[in-house]
């Protein structure tokens, strides 16, 4: 009986012998290290559930982690800017904190929630 080669190349694709069949020897491209947090995780959940084609494409091309890192970085930067602008527009100052104004924490939390909703709708859920 003829001895089969363990590896062959056809049309530029390497194949490896496993059992009686040759399978393409494919490897996914390397992606960058994940450092995404809350907003990257939210983006991951969203594209896995509602944009399966985009998820598959990013994953196969090795760009998923980079995409999630970018979403997270952009969302954090935008949150910081939006919260600062909304605090200024509503006239909430650091002096109110030193005066122990009881409504300041609630007002800042409301601003943070509103800014997060804007970020999610504009950046993550698209």
**How many strands?**
3
User: Based on helices, strands and strand pairing, what is the structural class?
Assistant: mainly alpha
Radius of gyration: 25 Å
Distance between the termini: 59 Å
Oligomer: single chain
Biggest beta-sheet profile: 3 strands, antiparallel
Strand content: 5-15%
Q: Quickly count the helices.
A: 5
**Which sequence of strands runs across the widest sheet?**
1-2-3
Unreliable stretches covering 5 or more consecutive residues: none
Helix-strand pattern, N to C?
Answer: EEEHHHHH
Identify the overall geometry.
rod-shaped
Overall pLDDT metric: 87
What is the helix fraction of residues, given as a range? 55-70%
Describe this structure in words.
The chain has 126 residues and is mainly α. The protein has a three-stranded antiparallel beta sheet, with no helix packed on it. The chain is built from five helices and three strands, in the order βββααααα. The radius of gyration is 25 Å and the shape is rod-shaped. The relative contact order is 0.11.
What's this, in brief?
By secondary structure, the chain is mainly alpha-helical.
List the helices and strands and how they pair.
Blueprint: E1 7-10, E2 13-18, E3 21-24, H1 38-50, H2 52-61, H3 64-89, H4 94-98, H5 104-124
Antiparallel strand pairs: 1-2, 2-3
Helix pairs in contact: 1-2, 1-3, 3-5
Annotation keywords:
126 residues; mainly alpha; 3-stranded antiparallel β-sheet; 5 helices; 60% helix; rod-shaped
């Amino acid at each position: 009986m003829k001895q089969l080669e363990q590896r062959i190349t056809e049309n530029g694709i390497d194949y490896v012998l496993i059992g009686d069949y040759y399978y393409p020897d494919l490897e996914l491209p390397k992606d960058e290290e994940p450092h995404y947090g809350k907003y990257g995780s939210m983006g991951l959940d969203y594209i896995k559930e509602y944009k399966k084609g985009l998820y598959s494409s990013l994953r196969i091309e090795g760009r998923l982690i980079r995409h999630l890192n970018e979403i997270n970085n952009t969302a954090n930067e935008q949150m910081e800017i939006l919260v600062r602008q909304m605090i200024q527009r509503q006239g909430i100052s650091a002096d109110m904190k030193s005066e122990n104004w009881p409504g300041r924490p609630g007002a800042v939390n409301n601003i943070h929630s509103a800014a997060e909703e804007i970020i999610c709708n504009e950046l993550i859920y698209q």
